[in-house]
Structure formats: structure tokens, C-alpha cells
Amino acid sequence: MTTLTAKRILVGVSGGIAAYKSAELVRLLRAAGAEVRVVMTPAATRFITPLTLQALSGHPVRVELFDAGAEAGMDHIHLARWADAVLVAPASADLLARLAAGRADDLLTTLCLATRAPLLVAPAMNSAMWAHPATRDNVARLAARGVTLIGPAEGEQACGETGPGRLVEPPQLVAAVAGRFRAGLLDGVRALITAGPTREPVDPVRFLTNRSSGKMGYAVAAALAEAGASVTLVSGPVALEVPDRVRCIRVERAAEMAEAVRARLAEIDLFVAAAAVADYRPAETAPHKLKKRAERMALPLVRTPDILAEVAASTRPPFTVGFAAETEDLERHARAKRMLKGVDMLAANRVGAGEGFEVDDNALLVVWEGGQAWLPRAPKPQLARRLVRLIAERYRERREGAPGTPASTGDEKDTA
Ligand code: CTP
Q: Cα separation of 166 and 30, whole Å?
């Protein structure tokens, strides 16, 4: 099956009888997992209504360059940057001519000039117009600029003639778009990741927390998305921007984090626990601010749910990856913790002065059944990519039931 998970496809529709096929095209692109936005030329709106394509794409359809009613933050430049690929289908003879000339006289041609994403065009027109030297010339110029031409197909045309000029059928158009993307290591994988610290309230103004900055978890979320996974991040309070293409659910307490994870457990393939979850919370949260009285006071604490262990012990567990923070004897503790929690993979880092929390780089010892890899000190985004590569290898191995590749034992080579 063709997958376009989380890919952003801008569909351009120009005026021609084949414009009605763009409805099926949009539906199929979405079924393949893509996020779709549609831009039409004014002429296209005479063949198919923007409302139809709005309903199928789930977003307002844009026609005008200067559209006062456009969605906030989605002007033509944003739209051009947003797209991972632009597919114009159908592309009329006039549209090919305007693209070839580098015109920007409507929203669609402006976007085609402004985008850096690959441009694919699927021409559809009367076969005599297709054969005309002017069109041949335009097509040759577009191809020379790296534009991908899909079709046209041959066959009977709406005008009664037979020959090349039919729009390539929507399933083939979707396959052509998918072919433009290099297969990601985790294409189509649904990942859930926890990150950041939790806050366990003592009273309305105080809480117990830890020094986790969330940087490693956010970097792993970004690397998972980069590898093609669809990523949901359950995040404790941090001062970080949510990475591109990552859905974020914000929580505070360990119990809320556990609840957010449980609610999604049935629909995920991969779980990464990067959060520094408080292991204990105050047994009671005082309804009012606690007043100072005695010289000494004791705060009774109770255990919080162990989210990672709970996920690993569920009936149909996803592939689970945990983290561990250790101050000494990294390998022994990492192996013991992996077994204890029953997780597939565990990434351990040394914490202490200047290591682990609140720093921008880190090193990890990653252990799994029958293997381990040492990921040497590197900035967290780079380290996260290396970790995601290891996760993807083990994930595929388990899913495909393939015999294990020889376990890595030495330093992991960086091929990023
Ligand atoms: N974890 C979790 N829920 C908790 C506690 C921890 O999901 N209530 C996850 C963390 O996200 C991390 C791993 O479990 O992936 C860490 O396990 P933990 O037993 O807390 O290890 P350490 O933090 O290393 O602490 P300790 O050695 O004190 O047990």
C-alpha cells in the first residue's frame, strides 16, 4: 500500500474537465496518510466546487492570491513553505504555459514559484493541444527545470478524440507522489513519547519536580518524526518548542501523564518513555497553602504509577523503549532495569555533575536482548537520531520476526 504518513501535499487544480478527478485524488492522498491542502485556479472552480474539495481535504480551499478570509498564518508564502510536495492535477495547457514562463499571476502559479518543494504536474488537455509545439516547448522547459511530469495517459477524451491528453488516474498519481519521498526508517509507525519532568503538587503553590529540561525527549520526538513516524508527545512542563510534525499533549502530574498514555495505548506501535516522571508524589495535596509552624515537618509520599512498566506489561504491548539515569555502573544497572521493567530497549545515561540533565549533549549506552551499543557524547539532536536508528532496526527485526542481525557491541558509527 502506498503510504504518505504525515506528508504535506499541496494539490493544485487548474481548469479542465478532468478537475472532477481531483476529488478522488484528494480522498486517496488522505487515505494514504497525507495532510492535504488544495489551491484552485479561478477557472477550476467552474468545473468542481471548492466546497467539495474543502470537505474532502478537511481544510479551506484557496483560490485568490489576496484572500482576506484566508486562515491565519497560511498566506501564500507559508503555504509554499508548508508543502513537502506540490502536485498540480489536472494541469491545463494554459497552466503549463504560465509555469514555463515563470508567471505568478494567480495563487497557484505564485505558490509554484515560491515553493522549494518538488513540483509534480499531471497534464490533461485535448490531444491536439498536447501535441502543439507551444505545449511541447513548455513541457520540455519544465522538465529541464526538474519538474516531474506525470502522464498524460492515452485514451478516449471528453472532447470525443482519442490520443494522449487524459489525466493519469488518481491511484497512479498518489503512487507517483509517494515515489518522490525516500522511504523513512519508521514510515507509517505510530509513536508515543513522554518527555520532560512532572510536577506533583504539595499545595496550590508548591510542587515536587526534578531538573529534567525535556531536551532529550523532544529531540527524540523530532528524530522519530524525521524518520517518518507519526508522533504524539506527552509532555510535562518544559520551555521548549514542539518539534515540527509532532502532536503535543501537555500534562503536569505523573497520574495525568499515565492517563494520557493509557488512553492511546491501543493505537500505537512504539512507545518511548523519555520523561523524568516523579517516582513519588505527596500522599495528600493540601487544598490551601501550607503555613509554616513546626521546626520540622514530614511530607508523606506515595509511589506514582510506573508508566513504562505498565505499558510493557500490557496485553499487546508496543515496542517499548525506556531511559535510565545512573550515577555509576551504567551497564549493570541498564541491563537490570531493562529486565525489571520488561522493556525491549533501554538507553542509559550517566547523571551527575555536568552530565545528563540540563546540558545540551549527552552519551548513551543502549541495551536490548542480545546486544548493546555505545552512542558517544554528542549534541542531543544528533544523539537522538542515532538512537532512533537503533530503535528502527530493532523495531523492524521484531515486527518482521527476522533473525537478529549480529548485535552491535562496539561504538555506534555515525552515518548521519
Ligand atoms: N518511568 C515511567 N514512569 C514512572 C517512572 C519512570 O514511565 N513513574 C520511566 C522513565 O520515563 C524512564 C524510566 O522509566 O524511561 C526510568 O525508570 P526509573 O525506574 O525511574 O529509573 P531511574 O530514573 O533511573 O530511577 P531509579 O534508579 O531510582 O529507579
A: 23
Residue 307 near ligand 1, beta carbon < 6 Å? yes
Averaged pLDDT in 10-residue chunks for the chain of 416 residues:
84 96 98 96 97 97 79 78 96 98 96 94 96 96 90 84 91 91 85 98 97 95 93 97 92 98 97 98 96 94 98 97 93 96 95 71 93 92 94 91 46 40
Stated pTM of the model: 0.71
What's the domain count of the chain? 2
Q: Which atom of ligand 1 is nearest to the CA of 326?
A: 24
Report the separation in Å between the CA atom of 188 and the middle of ligand 1, taken as the mean of its atom positions: 28
Ligand 1 center from residue 267 Cα (angstroms)? 23
Q: Using a 6 Å cutoff on CB, does residue 273 contact ligand 1?
A: yes
Ligand 1 mean position to 324 CA, how many Å? 6
Same domain, 319 and 270: yes
One domain for residues 208 and 166: no
- In the reported structure, the alpha carbon of residue 243 is separated from the centroid of ligand 1 by a whole-number distance in angstroms of 24
Peptide bond into 318 cis (omega under 30): no
Q: What residue's CA is closest to ligand 1, atom 9?
A: 308
408 falls within a domain? no
Q: Residue 72: give the domain boundaries.
A: 8-178
Residue 377 in any domain: the answer is: yes
Q: Which atom of ligand 1 has the smallest separation from the CA of 254?
A: 8
Catalytic residues, by residue number, are 159
Q: What is the CATH number of the domain that holds 171?
A: 3.40.50.1950
Ligand 1 atom nearest 272 alpha carbon: 15
